[in-house]
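Lab notebook, bench 4. The sequencing result for the construct came back, and we need a structural model before the next group meeting so we can plan mutations. Quick request posted to the team channel:

Model the 3D structure of this chain.
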Amino acid sequence: MTKIIGLTGGIGSGKTTVAKMFMEKGVPVYIADDKAKKVMESQMIIKQIKNAFGGEVISNKSVDRVKLAQIVFNKPDKLEILNKIIHPAVQKNFKEWLKLNETAPFVMKEAAILFETGGYKQCDKIITVVAPKIIRLERVIRRDKVDEISVQQRMNNQWTDEKKIELSDFVIENIDLEQTKIQVENIFKKLNKV
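Done. Here's the predicted structure in token form:
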């Protein structure tokens, strides 16, 4: 049975960078955010989102993710409604993807809210990527071209690093790229022995 390694970390921590490092080593990696965007293109999901949030979040027969984000990111009850629509569909997609990769010694599931959704319970091991808050803020502002307040709101919807670290098997401190590569290499070697 293929082992599932959870890969998580707060927004701007560098999860995707770390995921790519594992991919370069031949590890199949499921990027939950990318799959969630694909899932949101399904007519059934678009209909559920429209019913829950109204027609103003639909543009050109697809979900306007910017408008939807403005609604959910500072209202936990609205975010929970959205998660109840998206997460079961992503979970189903992950199970299908897992079947395609069942011969790999281990696969990685990269998800920002792995703990918050309970997805960590399906993982054999968990890696949490961390970085100082100021660095994370700068990365997200630069990457998403958003203001500090909206990044802060997104951070507030995620568990703290301390809480994630308590439940993690490995922690990668992602500040310096070369140091991150060394940490990835060490964890990769350990996972191959599991």
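Residues 76-100 form the longest helix (25 residues).
Will bring this to the meeting.
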